[in-house]
């Protein structure tokens, strides 16, 4: 039987060639697609950054200063003269100050030592002979008599400040003073709740009479003394 189709019209005859051409075309398109590059339009860079390396200004050359060479050392003398020391120097002899057993020691006469009158303060509680308040000369216990007469003196001269009464101020004022070596009163100090009360306490102490000074080892000394004065409203 004869074939019905024309052999020239057989499409499957060149299939391999068509496949190879198509594959080559696809690979070519893929390659150009991957290698293709695009650039943005316009020059967006700073022209001021382009610095011309050619400088028209000439840089002066640094001159090198030449230092003068040091002066040559002085020439040594040809002849050295030796001068003899003709002056005689007296030697100083230092004698020993240590005593020998053979030397006699002179006896020294007795030296009178003068006692120094030390200006010291002896508290009232430890002094040997307490100051004597006027009127206590004949009393055997002069310390107790002194305290008794002090309380009597404060009660006799006590006066409550009017301004302190109006303000309702009250309290205790500690008074410290010193019985001097001549029996007078000095170095008066006060510490209390109000200046008016302190002022009144100082006035009371200023009226104390001159006393017989206290004595320590037979010498008159200064005797510090302190006493409280109480101001209390009725």
UniProtKB/TrEMBL annotation:
Tell me the compartments it is located in. Answer: Cell inner membrane
Any GO MF annotation of the entry: energy transducer activity
Q: Which residues cross the membrane?
A: 15-34
Task: Answer whether the UniProt record assigns the keyword Membrane to this protein.
Answer: yes
Name the source's superkingdom: Bacteria
List UniProt keywords, sorted A-Z: Cell inner membrane, Cell membrane, Membrane, Protein transport, Transmembrane, Transmembrane helix, Transport
Instruction: State the membrane topology.
Output: Single-pass membrane protein
Q: Give yes or no: UniProt keyword DNA-binding.
A: no
One Pfam match, given by its short name, reads TonB_C
Q: Its GO biological process terms?
A: protein transport; siderophore transport; transmembrane transport
Ranges for domain TonB C-terminal = 145-234
Annotated Gene Ontology cellular components are: outer membrane-bounded periplasmic space; plasma membrane protein complex
Where does it mainly reside? membrane
Q: What InterPro entries does its record include?
A: TonB, TonB-dependent_transducer, TonB/TolA_C, TonB_C
Which family is this sequence assigned to?
A: Belongs to the TonB family.
* Name listed for the protein in its UniProt record: Energy transducer TonB
């Amino acid at each position: 039987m004869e074939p019905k189709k024309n052999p020239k019209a057989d499409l499957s005859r060149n299939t391999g060639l068509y496949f190879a051409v198509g594959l080559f075309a696809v690979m070519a398109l893929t390659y150009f697609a991957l290698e293709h590059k695009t650039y943005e339009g316009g020059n967006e860079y700073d022209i001021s950054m382009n610095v011309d390396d050619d400088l028209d200004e000439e840089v002066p050359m640094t001159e090198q200063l030449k230092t003068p060479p040091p002066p040559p050392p002085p020439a040594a003398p040809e002849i050295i003269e030796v001068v003899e020391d003709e002056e005689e120097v007296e030697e100083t002899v230092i004698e020993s100050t240590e005593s020998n057993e053979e030397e006699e020691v002179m006896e020294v006469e007795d030296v009178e030592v003068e006692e120094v009158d030390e200006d010291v303060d002896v508290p009232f509680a430890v002094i040997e002979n307490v100051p004597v308040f006027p009127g206590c000369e004949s009393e055997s216990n002069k310390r107790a008599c002194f305290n008794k007469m002090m309380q009597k003196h404060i009660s006799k001269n006590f006066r409550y400040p009017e301004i302190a009464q109006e303000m309702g101020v009250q309290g205790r004022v500690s008074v410290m003073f010193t019985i001097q070596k001549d029996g007078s009163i000095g170095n008066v100090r006060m510490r209390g709740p109000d200046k008016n009360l302190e002022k009144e306490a100082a006035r009371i102490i200023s009226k104390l009479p001159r006393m017989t000074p206290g004595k320590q080892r037979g010498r008159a000394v200064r005797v510090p003394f302190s006493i409280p004065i109480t101001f209390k409203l009725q």
